[in-house]
Amino acid sequence: MQPEDLLNEGNDDQQKAAAKDSPLLSLERELKFFKDSIQEVAIEIMVEGLSSYPIFVAHQHEVKLGEVILDRHDLNSEWSIHASTLEEFTERGVIKPELKDRFIKSYKNPNEFMCVFVVVPEGANFVYVPYKK
What we know:
Elements: H1 3-7, H2 11-21, H3 23-47, E1 54-59, E2 67-70, H4 72-75, E3 80-85, H5 86-91, H6 100-106, E4 113-120, E5 123-130
Parallel strand pairs: 1-4
Antiparallel strand pairs: 1-3, 2-3, 4-5
Region (Disordered): 1-20
């Protein structure tokens, strides 16, 4: 037996269990499942002139940002998804006005990627998920 085996004993199982229980894995599955519906909403936001920067808020708690498009209670899923925009994010102070230009520069093509603001107990962050894989 190698010393590394002693030091890492059980870690593989613990890492696999942690990955299996990770809420982000369930979010990834749900985003894949609902990607067509989310993309339709993004296109609608842009075509109607509401914003060139649709943002989707994914959460497992109560969030008062955007409009509910997929409710976890109604769908018997783990995540709710709200549709929002860059304009609402800046208006509500989620994105500071001085950081708006930086956000726009990093924003990916909304016809190819969904911009998701993921809210978890540890905090929140933006991720870009491709509609096609």
